[in-house]
């Protein structure tokens, strides 16, 4: 994990930081104590949009976490219908990002983006299982060089109101590359192809662009774990 304590701000951030600064000045004009609250909120906004560099493992076959956060669940689930890869259940790894996590999303594997679909929806708490079906979302399908397809879904949350995806259909991507951001609390789901077993467990903390979620070359079974 990167040890950098301060990092650049994502391009989506400056306009929001500017809004917070203006509101803070207004609060100072109205009532000085409220202005100091605005200062704290402005610092948090800059912190939210931080975009740290990450060291991504590059061996072929590794599946890398697309987001910082906590693995909410690992369970069989049908991919979103708009992904176009069928309704057969696949292992889904759901990573929940709270408002203090880095929200820049990264590619989990090397490959080609063969499908990209946005669907409007609700803004339920992203930690809820039904958020995968009912919330606003953006779905990508990435095909590896050996023909395996992964579905990657950005899901808006209770506070999030904007999903941004910076790649297009047909783009060639690499694991760990930045591809988008979700503003103010959200979730990312990864649907694994058949035969790919997770090497992580529910409850684990992930670092986007660094944590290994699975290894397409591995032959071991699902890992077990316990809180210690």
SSE order and pairing:
Elements: H1 13-30, H2 32-48, E1 62-64, E2 69-77, E3 90-97, E4 104-106, E5 111-119, H3 131-134, E6 137-143, E7 149-156, E8 163-165, E9 172-173, E10 178-182, E11 186-191, E12 205-206, E13 212-215
Antiparallel strand pairs: 1-13, 2-3, 2-12, 3-11, 4-10, 5-6, 5-9, 6-7, 7-11, 8-10
Helix pairs in contact: 1-2
Keywords:
228 residues, Glucose Permease (Domain IIA), 8-stranded antiparallel β-sheet, 3-stranded antiparallel β-sheet, 17% helix
Summarize the structure.
This protein has 228 residues and is of the alpha+beta class.
Radius of gyration of CA atoms, rounded to a whole number: 18 Å
SS elements, strand count: 13
What is the name of the CATH architecture of the largest domain? Distorted Sandwich
What is the percent of helical residues?
A: 10-25%
Tell me the number of structural domains: 2
Question: How far apart lie the N and C ends?
Answer: 21 Å
- Strand fraction: 25-35%
| Main β-sheet, spatial strand arrangement | 9-5-6-7-11-3-2-12
Q: Can you tell me the CATH superfamily of the largest domain?
A: Glucose Permease (Domain IIA)
What value does the average pLDDT take? Answer: 90
| CATH topology value of the largest domain | Glucose Permease (Domain IIA)
The major beta sheet can be summarized as: 8 strands, antiparallel
N-to-C SSE string, H for helix and E for strand: HHEEEEEHEEEEEEEE
Outline:
elongated
- Classification by helices and strands: alpha+beta
* Uncertain stretches of 5 or more adjacent residues: none
- What is the count of DSSP helices, taking H or I runs of 4+ residues? 3
* Top-tier CATH class of the largest domain: Mainly Beta
């Amino acid at each position: 994990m990167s040890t950098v304590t301060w990092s650049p701000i994502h391009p989506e951030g400056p306009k929001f930081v500017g809004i917070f600064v203006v509101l803070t000045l207004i609060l100072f004009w109205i009532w000085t104590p409220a202005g100091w609250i605005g200062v704290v909120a402005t610092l948090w906004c800059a912190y939210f949009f931080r975009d740290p560099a990450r060291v991504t493992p590059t061996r072929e076959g590794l599946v890398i976490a697309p987001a910082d956060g906590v693995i909410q669940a690992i369970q069989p689930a049908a991919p979103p219908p708009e992904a176009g890869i069928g309704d057969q259940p696949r292992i889904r790894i759901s990573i929940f990002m709270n408002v203090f996590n880095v929200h820049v999303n990264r590619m989990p594997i090397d490959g080609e983006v063969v499908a990209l679909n946005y669907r409007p929806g609700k803004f339920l708490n992203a930690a809820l299982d039904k958020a995968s079906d009912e919330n606003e979302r953006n779905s990508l399908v990435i095909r590896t060089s050996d023909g395996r397809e992964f579905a990657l879904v950005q899901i808006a949350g209770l506070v999030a109101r904007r999903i941004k995806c910076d790649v297009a259909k047909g783009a060639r991507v690499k694991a760990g590359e930045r591809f988008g951001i979700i503003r103010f609390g959200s979730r990312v789901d990864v649907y694994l192809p058949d035969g790919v077993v997770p090497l992580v467990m529910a409850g684990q903390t992930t670092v986007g662009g660094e944590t290994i979620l699975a290894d397409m070359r591995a032959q071991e079974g699902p890992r077990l774990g316990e809180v210690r």
